[in-house]
Amino acid sequence: MNPIELELNDQGRGSFLIKDGEEKLAEMVISVHKGNLTVFHTEVSDKLRGKGIAGQLLNTMVQYARDHKLKVIALCPYVHAEFERHTDQYADIWNRDWHHAK
After folding, report:
1. Residue 35 sits in a domain of what CATH number?
2. Is residue 102 domain-resident?
3. pTM of the model
4. What residues contact 21, with CB distance under 8 A and at least 6 apart?
5. What is d(CA 5, CA 27) in angstroms, rounded to the nearest whole number?
6. Residue 8: count of CB within 10 angstroms of its CB
């Protein structure tokens, strides 16, 4: 399988993704701004469903957030559900205050 890549533009918008040539097989859409990494959406193509790819994208994003000392705003339903399910595991990076302030 192809590795997970990070593509970010100059405005801090982009995604963690797995591609086959130019075809996107899996993608986690993010932005990085003012100490926060916001996750908007996660999608895995039918070709890779059931292989734990969303979890791999999640783990890659979490490690990136930790390495760069970022807090995560989980707007993506998948990421939010995983953060809720494993609160202790993500407590160091989850920007829960953002969710409660909105």
Report:
1. 3.40.630.30
2. no
3. 0.92
4. none
5. 9
6. 13
